[in-house]
Amino acid sequence: MKKSIVSFVAVLLVIALLGVSAVTGLCIPGGFTTPEEGDEDSRVLIPAVTDQAHGIRLGLDLVGGSSITYEAIIPEGYAGATAQMLFMDADGQVWLTGSDIAKAEYYYGSVNGSPVSEHAVVVNFTSEGTAKFAEATGSISGRTDGSNFLAIVMDENVISMPRCEYQINNDSCVISGSFDQESAQNLADLINIGQMPFTLEQVELRSVGPQLGMDALRTSMVAGAIGIALIAIFMMVVYRVPGIVSCIGLAFYIAVEAVIFGLVHVNLSLAGIAGILLSIGMAVDANVVIFERIKEELRAGKSVKASIESGFKRAFAAILDSNVTTLIAAVVLGFMGTGTIVGFAITLGIGVVVSMFTALTVTHLLLNAMADFGIRSPKAYGA
């Protein structure tokens, strides 16, 4: 009896702790609160559901904005493989590759102390690339036969041949010459993404106003709350004590799911909310299967305690099969889908795992606690 009371109270405390943490956030130091912007001394343990900086991020369809999708148009006869970028000297020796480049960007200003501004390209190297570039320029700059250049080659095509006048030990260099703004920008782009001869064609444009997005979020939350309330009423009316237990389990499920979503930084969209509501329905469905099995055992003349144990054992296979098949579908959607489909798959997958854990452990524990409290009339369990 004492063990059941402790277990029951422990579940309620966990629900309260997770619920408060999900609503207000939990950080150290500061306790149940969301750290203010710029507060670097606070470490967020559990982000609040409204804390988009540390937790759940809202998608385009909830906060508003624009999304443009482009398709690469590759010329006929081109294989479409990513171009390989090499930095070679006049003898064909490769000194650097594309992996040694951090980024390249267009630059306009003074070069090498010249009072005249000009168009140029600044190339930044990785730490390993910096050492390789220093070695390359040290070797090439000493040549006096006119071959003191380091050619930038892509797909066996030379796109630039900057000369090396001296060794460069910095993590960046400037490529200057007879550039205008367009040619300098093109060279920077080629160094960044490789020589892919494609054009971009717009295939989709979505624009959602901020007010429309907030209205969608608000109506979705209201619809979800109404649905959960109706489910709770139905469960309590039909299954009585187990229905009350399922409502407590549902509260535990929602609190755990909110915390997990914040910790993994879920990008929540309308499709993601649909995944949450679908997983809630599956959680309730698991409880229905269990409770119906318990009622069958009670009608067969078994005691409440024995019916609970037998009901869970008989329902386990059905619950496991349905949840595993749904989880497989969520995994496939997550890997094969794009955009909001991925968000739907993530919320559905997390929800399935949490719902199965809640139904098979928390609900089981609470029902046994109810039986230990002396509630052992079959009528109290819907039979």
Describe, in plain words, how this protein is organized in 3D.
The chain is 53% helix and 18% strand. With 383 residues, it is of the alpha+beta class. A four-stranded antiparallel β-sheet has the order 6-5-9-10. Strands 7-8-11 form a three-stranded antiparallel β-sheet. It has a two-stranded antiparallel ribbon with strand order 1-2. A hairpin with a 2-residue loop joins strand 9 (151-154) and strand 10. The longest helix is centred in the last third of the chain and has 33 residues, at 304-336. The chain starts with a helix and ends in an 11-residue tail after the last helix. The model has no long low-confidence stretch (mean pLDDT 81).
The best one-word shape is: elongated
- Our estimate of the beta-strand percent is 15-25%
Q: Measure the end-to-end span.
A: 24 Å
Helix content: 40-55%
For the largest beta-sheet, the strand count, sense and barrel status come to:
4 strands, antiparallel
Quaternary structure of the protein: single chain
Arithmetic mean pLDDT: 81
Low-confidence stretches: none
Total count of strands: 13
Radius of gyration: 31 Å
The SSE order reads: HEEEHEEEEEHEEEHEHHEHHH
Instruction: Count up the helices.
Output: 9
Class per helix and strand makeup: alpha+beta
Enumerate the strands of the largest sheet in spatial order, edge to edge or round the barrel: 6-5-9-10
